[in-house]
Design goal:
The protein is of the alpha+beta class. The chain folds into two domains: 68 residues, no CATH class; 69 residues. Helix content is 41%, strand content 12%. It is built from four helices and five strands, in the order E-E-H-E-E-E-H-H-H. The strands form two sheets. A three-stranded antiparallel sheet has the order 2-1-3, with no helix packed on it. A two-stranded antiparallel ribbon has the order 4-5. A hairpin with a 5-residue loop joins strand 1 and strand 2. Helix 2 packs antiparallel against helix 3. The longest helix has 33 residues. The two termini are 14 Å apart.
């Protein structure tokens, strides 16, 4: 049994009752113990959750709506934050190559590498997310030179 809880900040918490817990308490006793008194909640199915958890911190639930939705503006912020993290990881990798090419006196490769590093430093400002109308469209907007994050399915 899964429950969507509407947190005071508008985000969604998911509460799952383990089947073994029902050997000791009733469902209502568990809910009374584990969910704060003023917190609205409802039972949900997997089909009411977004397809993946990549934008988990942008989930919203307008109780008693039929699905848990994704706040697209929050998802865009999350997407850009992830892009920055992955971009920084790539830039660190390229730093080592830069020293290698510098030591080898390979001016052509050094120039190409520095252009790529500048392109990466310009991210995420050069990535236009304005046309993304869904989390799925947002996931497609990613720079080809930066490793994509793993998508966690529900």
């Amino acid at each position: 049994m899964k429950y969507a809880l509407k947190n005071s900040d508008g985000t969604v918490g998911i509460f799952i009752i383990a089947p073994e817990a029902l050997n000791h308490l009733t469902k209502q006793e568990i809910l009374n113990k584990c969910i704060p008194i003023e917190t609205p909640y409802r039972e949900i199915t997997d089909g009411e959750l977004p397809a993946n958890r990549l934008f988990r911190n942008a989930w919203t639930d307008d109780l008693p709506g039929s699905t848990v939705d994704v706040d697209l503006e929050k998802a865009k912020d999350i997407h850009l934050d992830r892009l920055r993290v992955m971009r920084d990881k790539k830039l660190k990798e390229l730093d080592g190559l830069e020293f290698k090419y510098l030591g080898q006196g390979d001016g052509d490769r050094l120039t190409q590498l520095r252009q790529l590093k500048q392109k990466l430093r310009d991210l995420p400002e050069t990535l236009d997310l304005a046309n993304a109308k869904s989390p799925e469209e947002l996931l497609k907007l990613w720079d080809k030179d930066v490793e994509k994050p793993r998508v966690y399915k529900n």
